[in-house]
Amino acid sequence: MAAPNKGRRQAGSPGRPxxxxxxxxIAMVALTGGxxxxxxxxxxxxxxxxxGTSITLQAKNTPGKPNAINKTNMDTAxxxxxxxxxGLGVSEAEVQTQGNENIIVNIPRGTNEKQAREQxxxxxxxxxxxxxxxxxxxxxxxxPSGSGSPSAAPSxxxxxxxxxxADEKAGDGSTxxxxxxxxxxxxxxxxxxxxxxxxxxxxxxxxxxxxxxxDKPSDKESGAPAPSASPSSDAATAALEKKFTELDCTxxxxxxxxxxxxxxxxxxxxxxxxxxxxxxxxxxxxxxxEGTDVDDAKGVLDQQRGMWIVTMDFTGAGTKKFQxxxxxxxxxxxxxxxxxxxxxxNVVSAPSVSQTLGGSAEISxxxxxxxxxxxxxxxxxxALPLTFQEQSVTTVTAALGGxxxxxxxxxxxxxxxxxxxxLVAYYRGLSAIAILSLGxxxxxxxTIMSLLGPGIGFALNxxxxxxAIVAIGITxxxxxxxxxxxxxxxxxxxxxxxxxxxAWPRARRTILVSDFVSFLAAAVLFLxxxxxxxxFAFTLGLTTLLDVVVVFFFTKPVMTILARxxxxxxxxxxxxLDPKRLGAKPPLRRARxxxxxxxxKEA
Length: 603
What we know:
Strand content: 5-15%
Strand order of the largest sheet: 4-6-5-11-10
Helix content: 40-55%
Structural class: alpha+beta
Oligomer: single chain
């Protein structure tokens, strides 16, 4: 007969409860120490508990799209704004619609409130437009025609520096009069519109519809310049000349209003700053690329130049468009070999092109680390489908949330007290194990919540507090399941130590199934809801996982160790495991055999 394998622990054996309990206590001490070391000894609070900033945005119709304000565009705007704010590390920000044309953004205190406020309402309409002409930003400054613009660096990205423009006429150091300057600027616009021979490519990089007619000769065949997308009538050209001549880019209001009603295919006038920080004004052709053609954007530090830039990668269609437009611009003379990167109507960069470029570009200028990363964040998540105007900005106090929190904590304390009273009355000595386990679970929950604040931006709100209170019942239920299994074993006539070990496999299965159902419900709730309800679901899921950890690594080892003590093993009346009170059956005993008599007389 083969000898039993002594190295293998038999089912129901106690194992090493001391080692398991020690590992749990070490982990709890390490988490608590990490909480104090990080300096975040309290959980981060949401806007309803800590207060914050509430921003109301009102939607405006996009130029050329009078019916753009609809449910689909509003929902899209909410999604984009939420991703932008969360991209800054601001968690628990609430973004929701109010009525048909308003969006409410709530940002908790203690986060990047100012930075988030700058991004929530930024439309981020990005266009790449060819430069037709450029002049100094003052309405009386002469047009610096023919000034040298630096060519693009021979790489796959473009330089955003436009170079310094000459302030004097070639061959004449005299300063022209305002009338002469205005005349020069108007003539520059007219000449640029006439000289613009670059049709707008479509998504496939082909020419515009006006050049697709089969009964008209192509530009190469006729030798004439292709028709531009600029205003066809003399009146429109004159209006554009006047707008360009009179525009004062040093005036913030003028910069904002100069092209508010312009559509992507219009020829526009816009303002921008050159590398020296001086304002310049531009006449720009129809948009050749849009922000939807950008696949990814991010702010990075250019190690060679020691400056922050924003790099952009285009989509497949965007790459074809970019190659087409840069190929055409590289054959033009300055300043018509430049293309302007226009963000919300303002020129943020106007690099010149000397060769056909690939599927990426960069924006450089006077960026700081924050401004470069902010712009990359905005471009990555896309442009808002609507233009928004900031209606109001209010500070939300935590007074109401504090009152509700106090009420919730009182309700939680009452519930916890009732649970403890029930445990003491029904389970007596076993209630000490349950109370210790609840305390261990509470410490772990508080510590992890405090660490998750700086870690992943978790913020504790009122629904999350409710989730923690509900978890008290879930955790207590696991203890009750285990205690009842032990009692069932004692009722069958077993002593305490074997009962503890035999009850564990059965209780373990029940606890795992119950916690799995609770965690699954929390996960589904977290995925299908938004806003504060997610806080409830997250806390419920976290405490459910901690319940499994506490029961396996704390409650079970403690129960095994205490079963060896005289108070519990002897079945004391206050231990909660008294066999008489539980109606235990007497232990099964084998009947004694009667030995055969040895005396023949007795036989």
